[in-house]
Write a structure and sequence with these properties.
GO terms for molecular function: acyltransferase activity, transferring groups other than amino-acyl groups. The protein has one domain: Aminopeptidase, CATH 3.40.630.30. It is 26% helix and 29% strand. It has a 7-stranded mixed β-sheet, with helices on both faces. Strand 2 and strand 3 form a beta hairpin.
């Protein structure tokens, strides 16, 4: 049996926190939003990847995308993010946003587009996660779920 991608449960909290700590990403708010996370399990049922979709009104914010480096390859990464985007559409989000300092071509391939700073919506700026935004370094990307 191959990898499994599923909705996270409370028992996944510690492995998710471990992955995020290893990637130097914030663990804030995960406990309260665990049901908005997806996890990737290897054939031994070890959590090797995660991504969260934090609700922000009628939209969602993709956050905390991590795959253990020894488990990552382009196909698994692409399949995982495409599934996360589909999950966001299934949950009824009109737009999905993400903040990134790298991997722009990867997300553009999926359909995300870079927003100019003046176009970043206020409800996204009001999120706790947006506090990690660094002007001139962090890029905000948007995908309308109508385009999926």
């Amino acid at each position: 049996m191959g990898i499994v991608i599923r909705i996270a449960t409370e028992k996944d909290l510690l492995p998710i926190q471990h992955l995020l700590a290893k990637a130097n990403l914030s663990e804030r708010g995960i406990e309260q939003n665990i049901d908005n996370f997806l996890v990737v399990e290897d054939p031994d049922k070890k959590v090797i990847g995660t991504v969260g979709i934090e609700p922000i009104g009628k939209d969602g914010l993709l956050r905390s995308l991590v795959m253990a480096s020894e488990s990552w390859n382009a196909k698994v990464g692409l399949d995982f993010i495409e599934l996360a985007v589909s999950y966001g559409k299934q949950k009824g989000y009109e737009k999905l946003y993400l903040l990134t300092n790298s991997s722009l071509p990867f997300f553009e391939y999926i359909g995300f587009r870079i927003l100019e700073e003046q176009d970043v919506p206020g409800h996204l700026k009001d999120t706790e996660h947006f506090a990690q935004y660094v002007e001139g370094v962090t890029k905000v990307m948007e995908l309308s779920t109508d385009e999926i």
